[in-house]
Amino acid sequence: MISQRAKYALRALSMLARSNAGTPVQIPDIAEEQKIPKKFLEQIMLDLKRAGLVESRRGKQGGYLLQRPASEITYGEVLRLIDGPIAPLPCLSITAYKRCEDCRGESDCELRHVFARVADETRAVLFSTSLADAIAMPSNTCEPVERRSND
Amino acid sequence: MISQRAKYALRALSMLARSNAGTPVQIPDIAEEQKIPKKFLEQIMLDLKRAGLVESRRGKQGGYLLQRPASEITYGEVLRLIDGPIAPLPCLSITAYKRCEDCRGESDCELRHVFARVADETRAVLFSTSLADAIAMPSNTCEPVERRSND
DNA sequence: ACGTTATCTATTGATTTTGTAGATTTTATG
DNA sequence: CATAAAATCTACAAAATCAATAGATAACGT
Questions:
Q1: What is the CA radius of gyration of chain A?
Q2: CB-CB contact of A15 with A34 (8 Å)
Q3: φ and ψ of A86, to 5 deg
Q4: Both ends of chain B: CA-CA distance in Å?
Q5: Inter-chain residue contact A134 with B114, CB threshold 8 Å
Q6: Distance (Å, rounded) from C-alpha B93 to C-alpha B35?
Q7: Among B1, B14, B19, residue whose Cα is nearest residue B134
């Protein structure tokens, strides 16, 4: 499960992506439309700014804008920033690699082999999907949400 | 990231799967070999038992055995049992579906569309990989851990 | 100068995670 | 039957994480 924070971040960024006009979007507006606690959102936007995803303008007519085109900000990038490593095991993370202390031999760790595949698939989706892609999807992809027999 | 608990559970089950002989494996042995806190492991094994994954024998010569063949216990099943839903969003979980209160319209929620793909891919791997599969993998799959440019 | 907006720092409460501790029950075996 | 070895059960606790709140400060446009 991704964190609430990550959901908020992605939804906020989506709003910025939609409001392309070059005019900043303000926190109170995002908070209201997306039902996000205002002060909480402030912190999140700050994180996004420090990471270089958005830029801010202060004072009247201020607010936030994407720093890059929406097509060049991926879900993976955002998710990693907010929730940390994408990989399901520390020893599979690229940005925060850490050996599992209790695990002898990564090359014959079964867990690692299995979850390496999960990590690969997950990254393939998340880093190939940009904010722009996501916005373009819904209308097209509307087959009645195909469900397999598993979670 | 999967929980420590889940790692322990999977490693313990792996030991049971390997020790096929029909002779029970005991908690102290698992705990020592896998470096798992013994009392913590006890709780985990109880969960696995209650869920019908393993059976137990008490008293001397007691211990735990798989209740089904190792080829019929999947990583997905174990992970869901221990860590909860596989899906990254409550509204994508099959076993614990929950509407996102702050989200209007699931069919046009961008987050949902993107993470639905993640969920599908993840489940495809986890539910198609059994304990037996995982044990069989390591020796074969030993190309020097292919890494993409992303986490 | 004024109000509006982002920025910063600190703190709180709830929940989850990761364990510990100790008493109890069951069972094989001598 | 007595004993020791094993699982079982219940409760608790420390630490970390998450979600959110509070209040003061700095920058900017008009």
A1: 18
A2: yes
A3: -75, -35
A4: 12
A5: yes
A6: 33
A7: B14
Helix (H) or strand (E) holding A66: strand A63-66
How far apart (Å, rounded) are the C-alpha atoms in residues B13 and B73?
Answer: 9
pLDDT surpassing 80 at residue A151: no
Check if B73 contacts A (Cβ < 8 Å): no
Per-residue flag: A28 CB under 7 A of strand C: yes
Q: Please report, rounded to whole angstroms, the spatial distance between the CA atom of protein residue B146 and the C1' atom of nucleotide D22.
A: 48
Q: How many beta-carbon contacts under 8 Å exist across A and B? A: 149
Cα of B125 to nearest chain A Cα, Å: 6
User: Does the distance separating the beta carbons of A76 and B151 come in below 8 Å?
Assistant: yes
Q: Tens digits of per-residue pLDDT, A94-103?
A: 999 999 888 8
Name the amino acid, one letter, at A42.
E
Q: What does the domain layout of chain A look like in residue ranges?
A: 4-66, 85-138
- Give the pLDDT confidence of A92-147 residue by residue, as tens digits: 999 999 998 888 788 889 999 999 999 999 999 999 999 999 999 866 544 444 44
Q: Count Cα neighbours of A67 within 13 Å in the Cβ-side half-sphere.
A: 11
**Does any CB of chain A come closer than 8 Å to the CB of residue B66?**
no
- The CA distance from B115 to the nearest CA of chain A, in Å, is 8
- Measured from the CB, is A56 under 7 Å from any atom of strand C? yes
CA distance B63 to A96: 38
Q: Strands, DSSP E only, in A4-150?
A: 54-57, 63-66
Give whole-number Cα distances, A10 to A27, B34, B60, B110, in Å.
Answer: 14, 39, 56, 9
Confidence (pLDDT) at A149: 54
* One-letter amino acid of B55: E
What mean pLDDT is predicted for residues B104-115? 90
Determine the CATH number of domain A4-66: 1.10.10.10
In the block, residue with structure tokens 């029909």: B22
